[in-house]
Amino acid sequence: MADVEKLMEKDVSRRSFLKTTGIGLGVAAGALVFGTSAVGAQSQTGPVAEAPLPYVELDPEEARLRGHAGYWQAGCSFGAFYAVASMLREKVGGPYNQIPLRMLGYGRGGFANWGTICGALNGAAAAINLVCPDADTNKLVGELLGWYTRFPFPSAESTAIAAAGGFKYSKKDHPKLELVTSVADSPLCHVSNAKWIAKSGFLLPTPERKERCARLTGDVAAKAVELLNAWKAGKFVATFKVDDQTAGCLSCHAEDQEGKMTCVSCHEPH
Fold first, then answer.
1. Does residue 50 sit in the same domain as residue 74?
2. Coil, helix or strand at residue 133
3. Cα 231 to Cα 56, 132, 139, distances in angstroms
4. Stated pTM of the model
5. Nearest to residue 202, comparing CAs of 182, 219, 186?
6. Based on the domain organization, do 127 and 22 belong to the same domain?
7. What is the pLDDT of residues 171-212, one digit of tens each?
8. Does residue 167 sit in the same domain as residue 259?
């Protein structure tokens, strides 16, 4: 997190300058804004309201770019959360200026590198939870997780951006090659990475695997924004349903376990 903390310090000075000079907040000269705004935080007193925070329509493709860059700065969970929350800082301000963006950094590698829930899902879900009532949060996050389990990552959109050198905010060089895709059938980092590694042949420490997860982070952030935009417009409709095999399992095991994941990814059918 040292790099993020350095960027935070730079961001405080930058935002102070922008506030003083009256220049609008945004992404400057192809550089990302990381960290918390001291000026924004000082403009409010007392705790941030526990009620859902305001939301305005965001650009999913901008979220994709920021999510990719955020991954290379501090990992998947930070990247997905940053992608959404940083845009809300710029478009809404207020309470979003008091939320430290680094708070989701722990989620990298499936929660402190334990390989549990994919960090990109963790960060995106946290952003959704900021703006939605509890019941709607469950619906949107549930849809996001269900989509993730069946989507071939990385997306064609992210691969096309990479091929064109279009990840303009990412400070780190990233491979422009077309990476193979894989379907996780699970929201777990361990499973998602293992299936892609088995298909691609690129092991966990390789730049190719890391770039895969950077693109995945952008893809998840973009999907989260799509869901939030639909929710804001009153057009969100959940489409995910468990498959027939999982539904069969749940017909007997709905009360002795918690979950909607594909059962046979961990258990033998019986």
1. yes
2. coil
3. 11, 9, 10
4. 0.80
5. 182
6. yes
7. 766 668 889 999 999 999 999 999 999 999 999 999 999 999
8. no
